[in-house]
Amino acid sequence: MPYIQVGGTPHYYQWLDPTAPTKDKPVMAFVHGWGGSARYWETTAAHLSKDFDCLLYDLRGFGRSRLLENPIEFDWEMESYAADLAALLDALQLDRVYLNSHSMGASVAVVFANRYPERVEKLILTCSGIFEYDEKTFSAFHKWGSLVVQFRPQWLSRIPLMERFFMARFLHRPIPTAAQRAFLEDYLMADDRAVRHTIFTSVSQKATEVMPEEFARLQVPTLLVSGEHDQIIPAAGGRQAAQLNQMVEFVEIPATSHFPMLEDPDSYLHEVIQFLGVGS
Question: What distances in angstroms separate CA 247 from CA 46, 87, 130, 244, 266, one per listed residue?
Fold first, then answer.
C-alpha cells in the first residue's frame, strides 16, 4: 500500500486511477470525517474520475494512517490536520487542487482553504456548519463520546447486524451492507488517541467561536451540501454558515442524513457536477 511520511506519521494515500496523476486533468483531493477513512469516498470519486485525478488519503490516526508507538507531538487541532494536508500535497508535488470534504474533514478543509487559498481551485463541504456553544450540551456530548470510544473491541464487527445498529444514527436512507460494515471496521481500527482527542477539538467552545470566522473568510468558490435529516450536523447549521459568505452556495439534499453522497448519490453528484462546471 502507498504511504508517504507527513509530520512524522506514515499517511496512507491512493490515486483512484493507478496511472494518476496524469497532468491532463485537475486533481481533486478527498478528506474524510471523524472515525472514518478514505474508503467511503471511493464511489463518489469513481463518478468524478472522468474529469479529475482523484486523490484519497486517511487522516492521521484514522483508517490506514496508523500512529507510531511514540508519535511526534501533535495537538489534534483542525489547523494541524490542515498542515498535514499541505505537507501531503507538497510531498506529492501538487500545487493546486479541488477539495471535497466531509464532516470533521470539512472543518479541516475550511481551515486549509483559508491558510492556503492559492492552493484551492474550488471547495466542496459535505455535512458541515456552525453551532452555538452550550456548556451543558457540549459537556454531555464529550462525556458520552469519551465513554463510547473507550469501548471498541474488535469482536463487535463479528456480531450479526451490528453495522446496522452502528450506522442507524448517521443514515436516513439505507446504504449497502458492505459500506456500513466498512464504516464499523474503520471506527474500530482508528487509533484511541485520534478518536479521543478529536472529539474535543472538532466539537468545542473554540470551534463555535472560530468556525464562523473561518466561513466568513473563505475566498474560494464553495459548495456546502447538507442532508435534510442530519442529526450530527443539522442542515440549519450549514445554512447559517453559508449565509456568512457570498462565496458559499448552500444545497440541502432531501431525505438524507449525514452521508448524502451515499444515501442519494444521484442528487449529490448532480449538485456537485453543476457546481464544478464539468460534463461527467
Answer: 27, 26, 16, 9, 24
- Cα 234-177-171 angle, rounded to 5 deg: 10
Which residue type, as a one-letter code, is found at position 251?
V
169 CB burial (10 A radius; 0-12, 13-18, 19+): exposed
**What is the rounded CA–CA span in Å between residue 225 and residue 44?**
14
Q: Which grid cell is 60?
A: 492521521
Between CA 26 and CA 52 the distance in angstroms is 5
- How many angstroms separate the CA atoms of 256 and 261, rounded? 9
Q: Which residues contact 67 (CB under 8 A, 6 or more apart)?
A: 9, 60, 61, 191, 193, 194
What is the structure's pLDDT at 49?
95
Residue type, 26: P
Residue 150, C-alpha cell as written in the block = 473507550
Q: What is the spatial distance between Cα 226 and Cα 260, in angstroms, rounded to a whole number?
A: 7
Q: 110 falls in which pLDDT band (50, 70, 90)?
A: very high
Q: Which three cell numbers stand for residue 123?
A: 471547495
